[in-house]
Design goal:
It is built from 12 helices and no strands. The protein has helices spanning 3-6, 10-22, 26-29, 33-42, 47-53, 58-77, 87-103, 106-116, 122-139, 147-169, 172-194, 200-214.
Length: 215
């Protein structure tokens, strides 16, 4: 990849500038069109420019914030020697890094959590949580492409979503205690599942999903 290809394009750079401008304003304006308008003006962008960059409005801004937090978590994790950690330790570190990335933008993250809790935004919430879980499992070295790929991310998503909420609204200690207990449950489940024979219909379904994802 050339240096020019690796360099973010204008849209990517401007989206990040817009997010930078929105974060300190979100406590007062919420995840609303008014926030986008105000942040856009601070960046010298017209409402039309903002609309082109974020056609889904606040939903796109929330997605940008979540993916920034995913990137920050991965930056933190690169400082660890993953090869020396057991799988449960890797997942615990991954979740902790993701929680702290969200907590670093506390007001914006709280507003984003409230936005994602609305019924019309639950699909977006599920998709973003899945992305976060996928990033953590990939960092942990998971390369599964069968049904385990989906079960691992589904289970971890079920831990991440409430854990992030607890970290934002209850604090670090309760969130980490919650995560530690749930990871023990996940490891027990994985051990139990490893002893099962996968049924042919389930195996066929998992293989079909894998082909759709990796074709």
């Amino acid at each position: 990849m050339t240096a020019s290809a690796a360099k973010p394009d204008w849209a990517d750079r401007t989206e990040q500038r817009l997010l930078d401008a929105a974060i300190p304003r979100v406590a007062d304006l919420g995840m609303t069109p008014a926030l986008l308008k105000d942040a856009g003006a601070a960046c010298g962008l017209s409402e039309g420019d903002v609309g082109l960059l974020l056609p889904n409005g606040p939903s796109d801004l929330v997605a940008l914030l979540s993916r920034r937090h995913d990137d920050k978590a991965l930056q933190t994790l690169t400082e660890l020697d993953a090869a020396t950690l057991k799988i449960r330790e890797k997942i615990a570190c991954g979740v902790s890094a993701r929680l702290e990335a969200a907590a670093a933008d506390m007001d914006a993250s709280k507003r984003a959590a409230g936005f994602l809790s609305l019924p019309q935004n639950l699909n977006l919430a599920a998709r973003l949580t899945w992305e976060s879980a996928d990033q953590i499992w990939r960092w942990a070295g998971d390369t599964a492409t069968d049904e385990n790929h989906y079960s691992k991310r589904t289970i971890l998503s079920g831990i991440l979503a409430p854990a992030i909420t607890m970290r934002l609204f209850d604090g670090r200690e309760p969130a980490e205690a919650f995560v530690a207990a749930r990871i023990e449950n996940v490891m027990a489940f994985e051990k139990w599942k490893a002893g099962l024979k996968v049924s042919e219909p389930l195996k066929a379904a998992a293989e079909a999903l894998a082909k759709m994802r990796y074709r």
